[in-house]
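yo

u said u wanted the structure for the complex thing, so here. seqs first:
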Amino acid sequence: MSKLTDVPKRILIGRALRSDRLGETLLPKRIALPVFASDPLSSVAYAPGEVLLVLSIAGVSAYHFSPWIALAVVVLMFTVVASYRQNVHAYPSGGGDYEVATTNLGAKAGLTVASALLVDYVMTVAVSIASGIENLGSAIPFVVQHKVLCAVVVIVLLTLMNLRGVKESGKLFAIPTYVFVGGVFVMIAWGAFRGLVLGDTMRAPTADYQIKAEHQGLAGFALIFLLLRAFSSGCAALTGVEAISNGVPAFRKPKSKNAATTLSMMGLLAVTMFCGIIALAATTNVRMAENPATDLLKNGNPIGSGYVQNPVISQVAEAVFGKGSFLFVLLAAATALVLFLAANTAYNGFPLLGSILAQDRYLPRQLHTRGDRLAFSNGIVLLAGTATLLVVIYGADSTRLIQLYIVGVFVSFTLSQTGMVRHWNRHLAVEKDQAKRRHMIRSRAINAFGACLTGLVLVVVLVTKFTHGAWVALMGMCIFYATMTAIRKHYDRVAEEIAAPEGPSDDSVRPSRVHSVVLISKIHRPTLRALAYAKLMRSDTLEALTVNVDPAETKALREEWERRGIDVPLKVLDSPYREITRPIIEYVKSLRKESPRDAVSVIIPEYVVGHWYEHLLHNQSALRLKGRLLFTAGVMVTSVPYQLASSEAARNRARRRQEWSAPGAVRRGPAVERPKEPSAAKD
Amino acid sequence: MSKLTDVPKRILIGRALRSDRLGETLLPKRIALPVFASDPLSSVAYAPGEVLLVLSIAGVSAYHFSPWIALAVVVLMFTVVASYRQNVHAYPSGGGDYEVATTNLGAKAGLTVASALLVDYVMTVAVSIASGIENLGSAIPFVVQHKVLCAVVVIVLLTLMNLRGVKESGKLFAIPTYVFVGGVFVMIAWGAFRGLVLGDTMRAPTADYQIKAEHQGLAGFALIFLLLRAFSSGCAALTGVEAISNGVPAFRKPKSKNAATTLSMMGLLAVTMFCGIIALAATTNVRMAENPATDLLKNGNPIGSGYVQNPVISQVAEAVFGKGSFLFVLLAAATALVLFLAANTAYNGFPLLGSILAQDRYLPRQLHTRGDRLAFSNGIVLLAGTATLLVVIYGADSTRLIQLYIVGVFVSFTLSQTGMVRHWNRHLAVEKDQAKRRHMIRSRAINAFGACLTGLVLVVVLVTKFTHGAWVALMGMCIFYATMTAIRKHYDRVAEEIAAPEGPSDDSVRPSRVHSVVLISKIHRPTLRALAYAKLMRSDTLEALTVNVDPAETKALREEWERRGIDVPLKVLDSPYREITRPIIEYVKSLRKESPRDAVSVIIPEYVVGHWYEHLLHNQSALRLKGRLLFTAGVMVTSVPYQLASSEAARNRARRRQEWSAPGAVRRGPAVERPKEPSAAKD
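structre next:
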């Protein structure tokens, strides 16, 4: 039956198992770039706007600082990229920041990085989806009118896609990312051409608005604080840069070199796009305000709460391409799509990091198994649930969500770079080769500079954004940290409790004989099979046990037992309250009391069925009894399954589940052993 | 540890197990009456009002028909009581209408009765709570302003109480019921005294309102139809009369006689209260309308949607005792409490009927186990969920809910009485004793009259109420009927599939040898125990099996294995994808393929932990593996538990769960065997 229907399917799509394995091909750079860069590149869709928003607090004149802030972001980006190039060479195993911090700074630093990254993944989903919805909304008004609803729908769709384990391919990432990057570059080039060559005056839709400064004529410390706040908002452009350092195993050889090159390309693209958009925004006179309803003025009057503030990228596109033009709509769609892809990367990263944490026993062990569907599902549902909560609480407003975003990123940047400095120190202590030493000293300098700069930014972000929402992110990190510490403690305690004593002299607890009991309700195939298997085991004594809940049935059972001449004694337990579990537990305990050195083996015939609702109809007493028996010392419980015809359905389902491919397979590369010790490879 | 803390508890409340058993004392009549009568007696709180409501459609002049309708209800009540006195004598086992119908009319009739009763239990909860809230609301305005919320809160409280298994005592029922009955009688007596002796004019709060007849001057068929509809609404007073026939085993001896006497007392009380309230309503000029907002006029103008129509019983109490007087408030509180107790009886009846249906394999087998907490919980949650849904949909409006109520009651009345006629026919066919025959003929006549009258009422109810909501009740019955038929079919099919072939010649499927495999991840106490137990079983071959997910760990395991000199060969399976389940399943299958006549015994060491969150941290791979192994033919799976220290907590919890007392113990009486054949006892 099943074989017949399988044949055409196999011809069409190949053997499922094989194709699963084949899916893990290595990535060439041109595919690796979009796979890993959708997250960092997509942040140029919201980062420039955030800078203008904050500056607007001091009035439109403060917009003149935007090039300087862009410059600061560029410097920071180059620093971070240069630093991570060192990571990629030194840790090609894909452990990422968590591995670097743990190896070099100890378990607590590692756990801090892990907590930061977990929060970061949640924020990536929330911010990217919110921003994607806003970009889509600039082309489709319905979307922006039902922002929260649309954002939740997109999260649900992404979640379902990832739960089902949709097969990923590099192309899925490549097309929207290249369209997005291409579109932004065309926009910058066409804008520059129109402005510089044609001498056109391009005006953003908000160019005629005025901004009511919340603090007019800001100077001194207050101005510096505001500029720092604008800068930390601009740092949103750096989120996701670290992703490549987790994905080195997915690259073609030479892995580290290719990963480093891709990283540089990504950094270059990101800063060009970021600066280009900032420049176009200045040229086209984009006006953004933190509270547009009151602070944005049209002919001197507040614009009111009905106004929707479109993202900078869409305002600029409107100015350059014209409202409603094909390129404008294409760019809006590509931007939204890339942002959704960026959110999707968190769906891969979250369970992947979970599996690494599970290996170190900070999370449940089962998360460690690669491609375990259930484990992935739990992680995905947790991620989606938290992100949905944030989206709903913050009204899918990317500006408010971004306040929570950047803390985690810079915690892991700083700790990872600090760890790298330690890494080089350790290697320099033993390295004799002068050429290699020079190389290491250079790398150490880069990482040290990176650590200082990202640490400084972290302080700036914390100081300028703490009350704006960064405290929520910090609280989230603390919750993850505390939970993981508790789990690790539990595992350690259990490991101690179950540690085997040395030497083979632990015979005191070993039972000498075994007494087997087969549970019987009626005589049918499952019980006959259980009896046959029980006999095979040749235990010291063997008896059949039944509970008398209905005297008539028990009498019939006894008669059939004799008629069939079953050569196992049948013991009947009375149960005036029609209970099953209690009499059996009490009987087993009495056996143990009679001969405490003997073990009791309880053999339970079980039906194996194929549908969940059949489970409601069968085995319930058996399951409950099993649960209770496990608490009784000196007992072992054996299930002898009898596969009903319907179990075929479940067997097929289980097979399909085994062949399920976990999301994120593309960026993870083929299965490799994660080494316990970091390798000392470098470029 | 556990023993020490148990001592004071045992001194204080006695040994839990014993007290559980002692709780099942038999009921004297004075306690049995309130235990069983809260449901039927409480219906006088809403039934009189329903009669007036329907009559008001033809205008206030139609109120003159109310004594005639009351008379019809009295005749019906006496008929039903007389009929059920026969049931109580003939079927003292407590099977109730379901047993009577099944035994005498066959399985389909029985299942119809069961479906009707299940719907009826749901409606009892919904109607009683809605009416209780309305009565409470006549004294506390807040309650009536938040009707739906309050009703849902009461349902949730009742549900929690029943899920926790609060110990019931007869007193719990006795006090509110007697206060309620006493209050109503004092009201009737005091009202009669004031009216007849003192000559006071008592006026209900609505006495001055006029009613706008929806159909003025109704005559002929239309009038008869309206009167029949009013009568069927009045029949709400009969709901719950059948409850005693389910509870005969709970009575003191002579059980049947005492139950019959209690039934008569209950009938007498109910009709007296019903008629008294109808008479007082007529005297005090109570005005009720189906749509009070438009049809109730004050000084010729519609009273508007802000008006809350209080129940008749509370309007009458206000007229007799005075608004806000102590007796008025006491009666309102007692009425509400009795109505909530009536709802509570459904919480007992629903799972109890479920357990009987489970015995006949119409519902999952585990429901059959008496006092099984999980089974009761599922039933209770289903009941509460459905009732909540109805309360929310119908806005906790007792008038609208009552339209759904009466169908189920009369379906079971009619089928049960028809069954009784068959019962007497069968017994008359073999009975020779003339005195007994006379008795039987008399009983048959009573039951035949009861069957005809209730059948007639059923037709009337269906015709007059079908479009008003009776169709919902019928649909509910169909759903229950279809589900139970499907479950029974499933059980029958499985029973056929697993039926043992006759004769001992079924050796072809019996394995000849057994190959044991112990799963090992690390060497610790649980695995050492599993190895020791596996050796005890003396299977034909024994090997230890580990999956190589981490080469370093596997190497360490191998070395320790040799160092400890464990005399079981260790087999290592490779798993490049860090999977655990698949390699083991494939290995077991390969063993089976090599020697198909051998069985494979897989022995899994398991941690037993005490808290649900610990389950998330342990045994997950083991559980999944077990689930998959059960689908593999020729395999048995043995769990060797290792009880961690924390498992003590769960052991205690399980013990408490065992000692849990199921709700409804009081009305169910002590455990007795339910006979397969009806006894022929009679009065």
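Residues 1-24, 672-683 of chain A have pLDDT under 50 and may be disordered. Chain A is about 65% helix and 5% strand.
cya
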